[in-house]
Write a structure and sequence with these properties.
This protein has about 400 residues and is an alpha+beta fold. Among the domains are: about 1-110, no CATH class; about 215-265, 2-Layer Sandwich (Double Stranded RNA Binding Domain); about 270-350, Classic Zinc Finger (Double Stranded RNA Binding Domain, 2-Layer Sandwich), CATH 3.30.160; about 355-385, no CATH class. It contains 14 helices and 23 strands. It has helices spanning about 1-5, 30-45, 50-60, 85-100, 115-125, 145-155, 170-180, 200-210, 225-235, 255-265, 280-295, 310-320, 340-350, 370-375; strands spanning about 65, 75, 85, 105, 110, 130, 140, 160, 165, 185, 195, 215, 220-225, 240-245, 250, 270, 280, 300, 305, 325, 335, 355, 360-365. A 3-stranded antiparallel sheet has the order 1-2-3. The chain is elongated and about 100 Å long.
Length: about 400
């Protein structure tokens, strides 16, 4: 760090009297360290005002502590036990603990501990990117190039000893450790929910604020996350990169494919603790549980009717708006529900996919008949009462 300290000479501040309590002076001081610091102070005092000279006199009286190196007096930080051989490095370090940010950006007002931090920040305003990757040519405004090169080399120097997982950055390791410790330091002030990462909290806050910063340029629909927008764009592009190996059906999302595979395997990992019914998705189980609890969290603002599912509310709202987004390509008739359109198209195709297991009669609609009057009104024979169709 010594080269960085030298380039910020004019901006160095001495340890204040309040900071003197953080170090202790021993009887024996190192002449080597004293001489070096004295030469630096004498050099800086040239051309300075009397006020500056008084401030540097305070520096000369800074208490020192006998270090572990023979013949050397070291500056020891009692906050974090870090040791410095020079007063300048110690002064800058103590400023971090005192949270003194003396270097301010004239453009946005953000402040930094050192001029080097300010200079790196200024590149965000100027667009300067002096560090370039020799492999891919990507440039950076700060010293992130070292971390970037690990993408090409595959180096992951930060390893968690408990699970053996490695990371390219130290902060990624720190975030991963919270999975093992259960620590969630970032808490939502609106609902109290906690998160392991600050970015996750920022994304969560959009639920409360209603902010949706990522907008589709094709249809104008907005999303809270960038990845949601990327997934949505596949609808417009017609991309379905996830294909089922059993039936060949393709999907826009990997989660849809995983759910599809459960149909083939018969797996239903999400079980209702009340009735034992299984489901392929957790959100379907959540909706199902509302049948037992009676909770209907989705309410129509027009008529006050409530629903257990948001999709049910969306369909209901079309009654008030008159929207019928599903159109028959054969006759042009419009419908509020996709399932209504599917049933309608069978009148054109003549398809009758549901067959009575008792008499073999086929129907275009899958229905359970429970009452004689219903059977008569629908021209169903009485023996079809309470029968299941397949």
């Amino acid at each position: 760090l010594e080269p960085e300290h030298q380039q910020f000479k004019e901006n160095q501040l001495c340890v204040s009297q309040d900071e003197e309590q953080l170090v202790q002076k021993q009887d024996t001081d190192s002449p080597l360290v004293e001489n070096r610091d004295q030469e630096e102070i004498d050099s800086e005092n040239q051309g300075k005002t009397r006020d500056d000279q008084k401030q540097h006199e305070i520096c000369q009286t800074t208490k020192q502590q006998k270090g572990t190196l023979p013949g050397h007096s070291l500056y020891s930080c009692e906050v974090c036990d870090k040791i410095f051989s020079g007063q300048k490095g110690f002064t800058i370090h103590m400023r971090n603990h005192m949270r003194e940010k003396t270097h301010g950006c004239t453009t946005c007002g953000k402040r930094y501990y050192s001029r080097s931090g300010l200079n790196l920040h200024m590149r965000a305003h100027t667009g300067e990117k002096p560090f370039t990757c020799a492999t891919c040519g990507k440039s950076y405004g700060s010293r992130c190039l070292t971390r970037h090169t690990r993408i090409h080399t595959g180096e992951k120097p930060f390893t968690y000893i408990s699970c053996g997982k490695s990371f390219t950055q130290k902060r990624h390791l720190a975030t991963h450790m919270r999975i093992h410790t259960g620590e969630k330091p970032f808490t939502c002030i609106s609902c109290g929910k906690s998160f392991t990462q600050k970015t996750h909290l920022a994304t969560h806050m959009r639920i409360h604020t209603g902010e949706k910063p990522f907008t589709c340029i094709s249809c104008g629909k907005s999303f809270t996350r960038k990845r949601y927008l990327a997934t949505h764009m596949r609808i417009h592009k017609g991309e379905k990169p996830f294909t089922c190996i059993s039936c060949g059906k393709s999907f826009t999302e990997n989660s849809y494919l995983a759910t599809r595979m459960m149909i083939h395997t018969g797996e239903k990992p999400f079980l209702c603790m009340t009735c034992g019914e299984g489901f392929t998705k957790r959100q379907i189980l959540t909706s199902h549980m509302r049948i037992h609890t009676g909770v209907k969290p989705f309410t129509c603002i027009s008529c006050g009717k409530s629903f257990t599912k948001k999709c049910s509310l969306d369909i209901h709202m079309r009654i008030h708006t008159g929207e019928k987004p599903f159109t028959c390509i054969s006759c042009g008739k419009n419908f509020t529900k996709k399932c209504s359109l599917t049933i309608h198209t069978r009148t054109h195709t003549g398809e009758k996919p549901f067959t009575c297991i008792s008499c073999g009669k086929s129907f275009s609609i899958k229905i359970l008949v429970f009452a004689p009057w219903f059977a008569i009104s629908r021209s169903f024979p009485p023996q079809h009462n309470s029968l299941r169709f397949f």
